Input
Amino acid sequence: MGEFLILKSGDEAREILTSFAALATESVALDHAFDRVLGEDLLALEDTPPWPRSVMDGYAVRARDVQGASESVPCYLKLVGTVPMGAVLERRIGPGEAAGISTGGVLPEGADAVVMIEYVDRARAEEIEVHRSVAAGDNLIRPGEDLRRGDMVVPRGKRLRPQDVGALAAFGRTEVRVFRRPRVAVLSTGNEVVPPDKAPAPGQVRDVNQYALSAQVRRAGGEPLLGGIVADDAAALRARVLELLDESDMVMLSGGSSVGVRDVASEVLASLGGSVLFHGINVRPGKPTLCARVGDKPVLGMPGFPVSSMVIFDVFVRPLLWRLSGESARDPWPARRRARFSRRHASAAGREDWVRVRLESRADGAWAAPVLGGSAALSTVVRADGLVRIDAGSEGIGEGEEIEVFLYE
Amino acid sequence: MGEFLILKSGDEAREILTSFAALATESVALDHAFDRVLGEDLLALEDTPPWPRSVMDGYAVRARDVQGASESVPCYLKLVGTVPMGAVLERRIGPGEAAGISTGGVLPEGADAVVMIEYVDRARAEEIEVHRSVAAGDNLIRPGEDLRRGDMVVPRGKRLRPQDVGALAAFGRTEVRVFRRPRVAVLSTGNEVVPPDKAPAPGQVRDVNQYALSAQVRRAGGEPLLGGIVADDAAALRARVLELLDESDMVMLSGGSSVGVRDVASEVLASLGGSVLFHGINVRPGKPTLCARVGDKPVLGMPGFPVSSMVIFDVFVRPLLWRLSGESARDPWPARRRARFSRRHASAAGREDWVRVRLESRADGAWAAPVLGGSAALSTVVRADGLVRIDAGSEGIGEGEEIEVFLYE
Output
């Protein structure tokens, strides 16, 4: 029973995991910047747009020339040219003059507004009839109206969305500094584990965790490295972990959910000069989770059941990967739904529970039904739409209680 | 004014886009299956687990032998061995006998339950002292309890999550059929557009859309193909579109937001034997969106302003890509939040509006503030946290009205 004494709470484990630092930055080309974490502040390098541009198809005019124009009392202006796209009109618009302009065209000097094409008739070859007055600045975007030189556009530590990549392009940033993607080795352990292409003999089981965890690493923005399977042998495990630490930024040992195997793992980590930061957390599922630091790299001993391993990844390891990735602030569960809990669920006080649920749409709204079956049943997580958290301070959720479901995406 | 007559509504455009069919399927290796769309039904190939397994570390026993056991009145059993991991105990558990077993171990014949290690003391080398009674089946997972042979595990058309990849591994599926990822060419058009590495001369503008749209394609599960920039020249555009159609499953023309350029695009598409499905939609931003079919491939004329182009992609093109990807049912906006709208926003009746908003957390809850600035200002979408939809039937949103924000992720 001794091990219960050293269990860390979920919050303690989270706090410990914040002690790891972001990886170094590197330079990538613009077309590889999407979904990377920005390693520098992106400031506006120039006023945007640098000149007044039309935001409509129409005619560049002097607003005072069309004051009072209407359907019944149009104004007539002399058409002196058309603004070429990609260049400027080599002529000033004088009193009583106008020039054709397309969306995005540069407003010619002398003009101060654009009349939309819908409110103009071509009276003659060199004359237009304007049916609507405009104010100075109408249908334009002014220099610096989008962004002023020096404005913060995207801060360091933000994962680049498509629009952020667009902003890089707009400022001619064909190379950009981003944090390195964490390279995460996943190593399955256990005498009973066989690769998926082998038919398991009685007592053997196919390796699920290596593939599920690798997919989770990829979803969290890391690069998985399939580390293979090692038997429960301290020397073999030590040798393989050493190799993998050399090739990666973080190692996840999967399996070894039995006490003996976990002891081997923590001995091995100690022998590598690592310090065990926690070994056992008061969380269900996933109690036997282990975290060590070897050099400056995290080594995680994940619980053996695929379900527990996947939950622990989402709840604890994913935020760690975001941290290594340099991501400074991030909503861990952007996709979530309020729902009512369909069935009383008890939880031990002091323990943080994560319950797999299915969402059901009923006449009276959304309900979250716990998926029946223990952590040993992979189907529980395949059938689930998401997770519900029961805080350590709570003793469970009552039937009909309103809760928040964190969706799997 | 003629063009307004042929505007399709947003709903009509959505309906038209459902006329495109999913791409073919292909076979990929298990470690490339994550985030692909399953092209076959994954059924359980065998009962899972195939044999009864312990879900705890402890001792395999016959439940009737420990009936009534307690702290004060323990039962004594003869320890006849330990179940080896990855194999079976070559011995039957007889009356009064027990065997050590680890989590995941196969229950030996004769035994029908597992007592947790916490409730057992090793009395002597070959004897254990059991302090808790168990019922038959306790601390076990029975054959088929997780999945029964023939159960639907993951249906065709589902995008594979990490747990679904785990299920493939569990059934030894080292190869799996998935839909091809749509390959989407993005071609920028316009005499004024220069590549991001060039300093724009007056009137020129750096190509933003190609990079932003490519990132959106990738986020939607497609493979972007940077198609370069062509000038507003019908022959050049025709030649380049033909080339790109050959290399891709879909082409997006970006730019050409002016009427003249759009007319060129639709003439070019007609000359390729394509039919224009719509040309102009009653949606803001993004009215000048064009959709054609050339052969069985969609060709989209995207609006020229980066903001409009990005909104139209998220609202209309992304679901089209999911469709090409074979994805059968998908929540288009899994990440959303209820909030109150901070500022009255009028919308023309009959027009569907998508308003860029920032989320603000105030003492009285979440508020969504429209980002000021027109579609010509890229900063409006860079600063936004998400979009709010104003339906065609509505004339706007009032101050303080509760709405749903669809989050950018």
